[in-house]
Protein: Metal-dependent hydrolase, endonuclease/exonuclease/phosphatase family
Organism: Microbispora rosea
Amino acid sequence: MARLTAGWVGRPGVWRSLIAWPAVAPFALWALLRLVPGDVHFRWVQLVAFTPYVALASVLAPLVALLVRRPVALVAGLAVTVTLAACVLPRALSDTSPLGSAGPGVRAAGDAGPALRILSANLLYGSVPPAALVDLVRRLRPDVLTLQELTPQASAGLRAAGLTTLLPYADDRAQEGSSGSGLFTRFPLRPADLTAVNGRRQAAGIVEVPGAGPVAVVSVHPCAPRYAFRFRCWSRSLASLPGPGELVRILSGDFNATLDHAPVRSLLDAGYRDAADATGNGLAGTWPYRKSSDFGGLPVPPVTIDHILVDPRVAVRAFGVHRLPETDHRAIFAELVLPTTGT
């Protein structure tokens, strides 16, 4: 027995395999879970947000296999890296077909179509100084502003700072804590009701855009899946978001989810397009940026959880992120071109 054990330990191929396969296995498991069309587990919901970082790190697996000369592990490592890259890299490339597809009675957007500029910001419990946000609105001149974590005090401060002079129509659903929301527009607005989950007041309405007709907009903000007891609220909130329909629809806000999360992938499968992804800015981190947040003492690198999802008939002309003081989210801004209604 001692001789057999010594012989097994002394084989160079065994040691090389013991080095190569443990390097490949974690990335292979990550890729497999990423391809599952659903939420595997609460902890996976937290982890999958970091898929872009894992995809970058996965190049180490085939490199290790190459260095220790394990060809099968090398092929497996390359397959895993290619799989993860296929999930992530398209976000850094501009959409080759930005106009999407037209629906019945609607012509797909083009450069000559009606423009719509939309800005979204998470105010971190209403902490953003009103003057700073109003100044950003003046500079970017959005037609629609969606706000998350809008408190009554923040709402009053924004109105005093002149927000409603610039964007006079509003669905203001301010609330203490993180559940408040707001939708402010340059054009006439008819508030709409959404299914409330755990009391979250996601503002929504129909905006009458000149030349384009009614456009449905939602200020998105599901529960943050920071704790297990909030996982159900998070998943139900995202599942309750309306899909594309007869009206042109835009979902804008803090989704607390990246393009790697199954509920967001379901929205994209339903026809929505992510404005950042369409312009090659899909890897721009939006949270946290002001200071490092931590979970259990571990710092969190920036991830992309704020999105502007647009109807498949909408063209995306530009996308950008902007800093605001006293919040750990970057504001996001998109210039869209809407379809025109046929006669």
In short: The longest strand covers residues 115-122. The first helix runs from residue 2 to 10. The mean pLDDT is 89. Residues 2-91 form one domain.
